[in-house]
Design a protein that fits this description.
Strand order of the largest sheet of chain A: 2-1-3-4-5
Oligomer: homodimer
Number of strands of chain A: 5
Largest sheet of chain A: 5 strands, parallel
Distance between the termini of chain A: 24 Å
Largest interface: A-B, 28 and 28 residues
Helix content of chain A: 40-55%
Strand content of chain A: 5-15%
């Protein structure tokens, strides 16, 4: 019996799911200003901090939430125009986008010690179930073959933390998206670090260790 | 005696000092990205959220704080180059800068009810004493002829709140600069509102009333 339990515990392995924008890549502020410009050109005037605080939702949910906050209806044609304008505006700013400090080193270290990790990729048919729904994270770990309860979600927005909780994963917050420690903790973050570089220095706090 | 006290209380009048960027005008995120671009071109790579969290300091203190955080020395020539590049980058983004919701209505209301208000203007010789030093706010109220303890400082950054406390004024935080409620409260904010529009609806909470 004791032997069985030990064997069962041996099988458990921590895996990591990463958000991309604001977590591995320093692109949140460019996305925020690109959305602001796109919405202005579509005739929708919104304060920039409100866009910032919604940006992690991504896709349709994001614009729907912003429009609801303004008390306006969602016009699908206008939404598509805004999305096209956002892409164009972001491309103009994208030359200044850099990886966040420690991002590449962190991924390399996880690979080196055999800790499975992945970055969810949003395809067109998944947008309806974007964060704060847990679907993105659950789909991501399907490829890793691990249990949700063994997974850490590294994200920079409260939406990442909300989605992690709904997926029964442990959310780890990074300040690199521009949220505060308190906001991330209130959204359920288990730990909060400045950026990937600081997280890399604290892997032991998260129970991530070599095989 | 009672009569004297009444007379003394009658003379007290609340005055208001406004920060400009992020408080009356929605320009913080453009300034942040403009600084990021300017520093990159100067060979200084800094995460954007760190620039955002320092931006309210303004002027020389801002760049000095950022460089100290990176463990680098301040090279005056390089700093001047960065400031010039920032101005150029900001000008390219400035066409999308708008007043914040309620900003003009709030100033009009204060004028209408006879509440003195001002916006500090930074001249070249004042930069050495920019926020979080209290000098800017103290100079601003000199023109109004009121006591510091009767002044509300409306700002969007923790540096506004710190400078307000040092000037013995009451700091009122707005979320429109992208800080969280908790960050502003921890820095001493007496009250926190979303933006000028929300503050306008709560003037009674601040003891601002018609003559």
């Amino acid at each position: 019996m004791e032997h069985l339990m030990e064997k069962d515990m041996e099988k458990r392995k921590t895996a990591v799911v990463f958000d991309l924008d604001g977590t591995l890549v320093d692109s949140v502020y460019q996305h925020v200003l690109a959305w602001h410009e796109a919405l202005l050109e579509t005739g929708i005037e919104l304060s920039i901090w409100r866009i910032h605080r919604r940006i992690g939702m991504s896709g349709g949910l994001f614009t729907r939430a912003l429009l609801r906050e303004m008390g306006r209806d969602l016009d699908p044609a206008r939404l598509e125009t805004a999305q096209r304008l956002h892409a164009a505006a972001y491309n103009r700013l994208a030359s200044q986008v850099r990886p966040l400090p420690g991002a590449l080193e962190l991924l390399a270290r996880l690979s080196a010690i055999g800790c499975p990790w992945t970055v969810p990729v949003i395809t067109r048919d998944m947008v309806a179930h974007a964060k704060p729904d847990p679907d993105l994270f659950l789909a991501a770990i399907n490829r890793l073959g691990v249990e949700a309860t063994d997974v850490l979600v590294i994200g920079d927005s409260v939406w990442d933390m909300h989605a992690a909780r709904r997926a029964r994963m442990l959310g780890i917050g990074l300040l690199s998206g521009g949220y505060s420690t308190e906001e991330l903790e209130r959204a359920g973050a288990y730990r909060v670090y400045d950026d990937p570089a600081m997280l890399l220095q604290h892997l032991d706090e998260l129970g991530i260790r070599a095989d």
